User: What shape does this take?
Amino acid sequence: MGRLAQRHLPLCVTISDPNISGMVGARPQDSGGVYRRAVAEMLVDERQIILDTLNRSGVLTLDVPADKLTVSVINTYLELKARGAL
Assistant: This one.
């Protein structure tokens, strides 16, 4: 994707997992819950690092839940078009 950014305006769209997002904010009830929350937090952190790295390389990123995917992609397209980026 970084190479594409040299000549194009790539958009990397990722679909967030509501189950993982829910685990990050949940209060663990037992030791298994503590481990699940820790793993969920690690996944969210790693995902954010990757998205930040892509952004620094000139790649636009959009990370949304599946139920907001269509609207978010269309809005991003319209925003880019309005800015004259396309």
About this structure: The two ends are 17 Å apart (CA to CA).
